[in-house]
Amino acid sequence: MSINVLFFARYAEAVGFDSLEMEGDFATVDAVRLALASDPEFAVLNETSLMCARNEEMCGLDEPVQAGDEVAFFPPVTGG
Amino acid sequence: MAIRVQAQAFDPGAEVNAMHAANVGVGAVVSFVGYVRDFNDGLDVAGMFLEHYPGMTEKALAKIAVEAEQRWPLLKLEVLHRIGALEPGEPIVFVGAASAHRQAAFDACAFVMDYLKTRAPFWKKENTSEGPRWVEGRHSDHAAAERWKS
Q: In terms of Cα–Cα distance, which of B81, B142, B80, B78 is closest to B115?
């Protein structure tokens, strides 16, 4: 299945781009994260303060994912 | 309820006036305005850039506003947030809550700001005297949001 992965702010700078298409079987958002984080290029995804969203809704790492989903990883938000 | 995410500057005074202009049943308006400071965490700040997650930003703010409207009897609720480049002294965010009596407006305004701080996908990058830096999330913001859980 195909998942669209987005990175924002400091994470986008750390990995060098802000989106990528991933192919593979992923049960959860955390499975997507782990598949990426095994590559040192994505080490920033190991930060304990990491936040994530699925299809534009904030979620937990245990959130199930489906083909075609948009999954986003980002550092703690700092608006306001 | 009105949600606006915009690069354009805004006038907080005009926003406050608009909160009750169309409804004489409004007895109380509470507003919060957040501004860019020229100093943060020990460094001079010459300006900042506000990144966001287009699409999710509007949804996240609307979700917070809907929850506020369910919790308090509001006559009007407005959330306005800047994105892009901002200079010190410029307003970043406006939250206005209007109700018949003051307590609902006070509480709803504080609730929306506390939730916005921890749940809306904005990130600030400051131009400091030592170069650009991302602003780090604050633990006190999470404690502030927690108080509305009960």
A: B142
* Residue A37 forms contact with B (CB below 8 Å): no
Strands of chain B, DSSP E: 2-6, 28-35, 39-40, 43-52, 74-82, 84-86, 91-99, 122-128, 131-134
Contact with chain B for residue A1, Cβ under 8 A: no
Number of domains in chain B: 1
Q: Do B53 and A53 touch (CB under 8 A)?
A: yes
Name the pTM for this structure. 0.96
The predicted-structure confidence for B8-37, as pLDDT tens digits, reads as follows 999 999 999 999 997 999 999 999 999 999
ipTM here: 0.96
Spatial distance between the Cα atoms of B34 and A36, rounded to a whole number of angstroms: 37
Place of tokens 């980002």: A74
Read off the pLDDT of each residue in A18-42 and give the average, rounded to a whole number.
Answer: 97
Q: List the CATH number of the domain containing B94.
A: 3.90.1170.40
Domain A1-72, CATH among 3.40.50.720, 3.40.47.10, 3.10.20.30, 3.30.450.40: 3.10.20.30
- Find where tokens 């990528």 sit: A20
Model confidence over B41-89: pLDDT tens digits? 999 999 999 999 999 999 999 999 999 999 999 999 999 999 999 999 9
